[in-house]
Amino acid sequence: MTKYPGAGEYLPNTDDLAEVRAAAAHCHGCDLYRDATQTVFGAGSPHASTVLIGEQPGNDEDLDGHPFVGPAGHLLDRALDDIGIDRATLYLTNAVKHFRFEQRGKRRIHQQPRRTEIVACAPWLTTEIDLVAPELVICLGAIATQAVLGPKAKVTELRGRTTEAEHYRVGATVHPSSVLRAPDRTQAYREFVDDLTRLFEAG
Predict the structure, then answer these.
(1) What dihedral angle (degrees, nearest 10) is formed by the CA atoms of 48, 10, 109, 116?
(2) pTM higher than 0.90, yes or no?
(3) Into which family does the record put it (predicted)?
């Protein structure tokens, strides 16, 4: 298993989130930076009471430089709108900050990040959460859930409910991209919205 140096050596000694974001742009803590267009750091309110965490940037996010701007992000926006949550009041980020993909012709096909890459990137995520200091963290999908709660955490067991962490509550649901892949998107979307409703109410 490849051992990466990790993001720790790139972290600046600051409590300014903007400075941390600028430093992350130069992170070579794992090999994903070599093929990705850019680091995709978190975005949103720096004082948000709720942080949403996804897996990693996709193709659209890699090109745009912001999290949740592709198809999954549009679905998330729709769900938030349906439950009356203003995205501008949230902080959104990913467990891994670079796009991992396989090139197939002109297309870049999403590849799940490896555990070593999740661990290498963890200092950025930890710092984001520490500086934003939310009351609630919502993990979208297995990668995010395991990044926050450990490699044995399962979305199937935690979905739609929250648990206490040291400084905030943690909730989990599926990643919105899984809704887009579901055989019955209408049902999958309804369940996703129900999860988010329960999580925001519990937080």
Answers:
(1) -100
(2) yes
(3) Belongs to the uracil-DNA glycosylase (UDG) superfamily. Type 4 (UDGa) family.
